[in-house]
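Sample intake sheet
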Amino acid sequence: MRLKGLGVSPGIGIGRALVVTRGAPNLRFRIPERRVTSELARLGAARAQAREQIVHIRERMVVAAGREHAYLFDAQLLMLDDPMLVDRAVEIVRDEHLNAESALQRALDEIAAVFDQLEDPYLRERKGDVADVVGRLCMNLRTGGTPTDLFRDIEGPLVLVAEDLSPSVIAQLDFQRLAGFVTDAGSWTYHTAILARSIHLPAVSGVRHASGLIAPGALLAVDGSLGEVLVDPPADVVAELEARSKKRRAYERSLDEFAALPAVTEDGTTIRIEANVELPEEGAKARQRGAEGIGLYRSEFLLGGTSAAGLDEDAQYAVYVRLIESMAGGRVTVRTFDVTEAQMELGHGTESGRSPLGLRGLRLSLTFEEVFQAQLRALLRAAVHGPLRIMFPFVTGVEELRAARRAVQQATASLRERGVRPPDVPIGIMIEVPSAALTIDLLAGEADFVSIGTNDLIQYILAVDRTDDRVSSMYAPLHPAILRVLRHVARGARRGNLPVSVCGEMAADPVLLPLLAGLGLREFSMSPASIPIAKQVVRSLRIPDAARLASRALKAATTSEVEKVLAESMTAMKSR
């Protein structure tokens, strides 16, 4: 079976499917024979716990509403002993070596098929009661440890398959055991896709119903370049893919020499290249790949599935210090939490609940003052250990920036009362909404630096949700409006003597680097894996050529016309 989606992280990964379904999450995978006994014990314990829970709920219902309503829970107790449910799941675990959650889902599907054939509407609707029992059993199975504990002894490599996959879940996984990601939803600029590129893991998004079509344990070949997923491919196809993968790795190794070279154009213009990172341990990798600093640390990855309110000041301080020290004097820019209200307060770490508009970014942090102050204090304390900058996301104008500066002053005063004297820390903002881009001249007088977040900026200018694969084709970084806004920000920052960088995915595209340089931009931040090829491009570039390229692109009326200008420029460069 061949499934088609959107390649969001290049490369080829081959491994066994580990399926994550919507919810806590539920993981579906095959288990080794030696684990069957312990898996059956897990299932038995979950059933016993469910029985106690349902009995307790039944007793409360009798007191609150009368004994006549207890029949609902009597039926659920009977379901726990029905041979078609738990006993059937036991049989599946024993015979097919599926984990308990997978076996329960299979048993539920079989029962649901029987109910669907019934003519009585009332009886057909009773499959919902069975689903409720299965949901309770799965919930009890999950209380025995973290999701990663469940497949720690499963043989790898593994390909993670999910409806949707939050970065907080990925951040808890052992990357060395993963061969790739496949998700039903998502796009090139989805945070999961960005993380996949950062850790150099092949990924395909927007594969509709992949988590339902792919059986746990199936052999998958993920081609993140072509956007294809092959299910149980024949041996000769696997051999061909492995050969292609080997060739790609050899090409990537050939770029390593550029990591240690300075990012200076042929005509002597210095370009600053930094790294975007999600995990503190990526700092050392960023330096190895040639990063001059960290241009964007996405601090929300610290949450790891918990709430921001549950992450105390000292825990954050330790991480920020580790990141600063890993850069050995290189500048580190930390973006404050850019999360949803649920993630800030309750820890529901799923991207599906994230609205592209509304209460997020700086405006959300200002609402949760205690959480915000804890993060600011941790950052200010960490600044003693090396060059640190604080950057605020989703800023719409001067008023919000001033409010953020007052919050920093409050955190500074609090630390001084404790005897801590933090250094002056540069304060910057993300330019990712049109209002901030259009008022760059006003913000230049208030901010110490700005960084253009092209991922969000593009979606707000073009009214395209970047997380919705249905409209991913309309997400156009080369739209004439985007180029004009980038030029406007670059000019406004230069007139205000304001440092400006690009930290969105446009910066990581080697084809677009000459265009961005031609628009007047000189600082870029990207995934560590993208840095060597970016330096290769920079070192073959001449700024007057880049300026002429940008001038021609700005005259184009459509995205396709801009693409044609870039293609012609690349052809000319190759012939030099």
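Comment: The first strand starts at residue 2 and ends at 4. Residues 346-354 have pLDDT under 50 and may be disordered.
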